Amino acid sequence: MSPTHQHPLLTVTDEVATALAEGRPVVALESTIISHGMPYPANVEMAVEVEGIVRSLGATPATIAVLDGRPRIGLAPDDLELLASHADVMKVSVRDLPYVVARGVHGATTVASTMRLAALAGIRVFVTGGLGGVHRGAETSFDVSADLTELGTTDVAVVCAGVKSILDIGLTLEMLETLGVPVVGYGSDEFPSFFSRASGHRAPMRVDTPADVAAMMRAKWGLGLDGGVVVANPIPVEDEIPADEIGLIIDRALADMDALGISGKDATPYLLGRIVELTDGASLIANIALVRNNARLGAAIAREFAGWPV
Ligand code: PSU
Ligand code: MN
């Protein structure tokens, strides 16, 4: 796809547009993790560092957000700083995109909306930290992240470290199966739980090389099977927080959330912030380590996949 064929509502940087036009590897990155997933200034340092990792491994990073109502594919350092430090950046899932675009305001995109915008721009590989999913208690709250339904329809492979046990991991995996989304453990038989390599749940499939992930992507989309692929990449052993240790913290954060009556789109940002407080920042260090690890894998997958017609 040449830059002149870019979607009229998107603003794509020259760097990203040229890479896409030349069939070179591009990796999408989300912005809710910056604005609502980590405290300042660790968030902007992480965002800059991750772009650097992707570049150093021969791929072009494309951090995605909505600025002044314009969906942006690829951001400048000043944009990352704004997203990291301004209090008035909305958390934007797919349902919020029309509002922020029409109103001309800033929005940080979640996994779901980043996938959608990446796909519109022709990007097929996306790196993040953790997916949203089925929240614990969803049988009464109906709180199921739009990340899952987006994975059911949009052709982007998402590299993540699994899902946190703030969610119901078993129900999240069931729903991904229903939606037809392949979930692969990368180099692991077990599905990881973000801070920990273990979750108590088997990964539905296992893949051991970036080339094999790229082959699955070609097979899926070549067969007309629309939708995403989840590449669940366990946090490195040296960075993990044992599941029993983080489990107690997560239970406490969930109880605090219920006591405060927080729900809906505020649930995930509250829990992430509370876990950082309750671990004295240890969870933040682990979070950054797993994003780095995902960036390395995502760049390698993008290199293997590059050149496939989008
Ligand atoms: N999980 C994390 N860190 C995050 C998120 C989830 O460990 O930053 C963010 C992602 O942007 C994800 C979103 O797409 O939260 C899910 O929010 P919700 O549950 O409201 O759909
Ligand atoms: Mn939700």
UniProtKB/TrEMBL annotation:
GO terms for molecular function: hydrolase activity, acting on glycosyl bonds; metal ion binding; pseudouridylate synthase activity. InterPro entries: Indigdn_synthA-like (IPR022830), PsuG (IPR007342). The keyword Metal-binding applies. One of its GO terms (cellular component) is cytoplasm. Substrate binds at K91, V111, S145, A146, D147. It catalyses: D-ribose 5-phosphate + uracil = psi-UMP + H2O. Mn(2+) binds at D143. Its cofactor is Mn(2+). It comes from the Bacteria. Binds 1 Mn(2+) ion per subunit. Its EC number is 4.2.1.70. The keyword Lyase applies. Belongs to the pseudouridine-5'-phosphate glycosidase family. Homotrimer. Catalyzes the reversible cleavage of pseudouridine 5'-phosphate (PsiMP) to ribose 5-phosphate and uracil. Functions biologically in the cleavage direction, as part of a pseudouridine degradation pathway. This is Pseudouridine-5'-phosphate glycosidase. It comes from Nocardioides psychrotolerans. The lineage of its organism: Bacteria, Bacillati, Actinomycetota, Actinomycetes, Propionibacteriales.
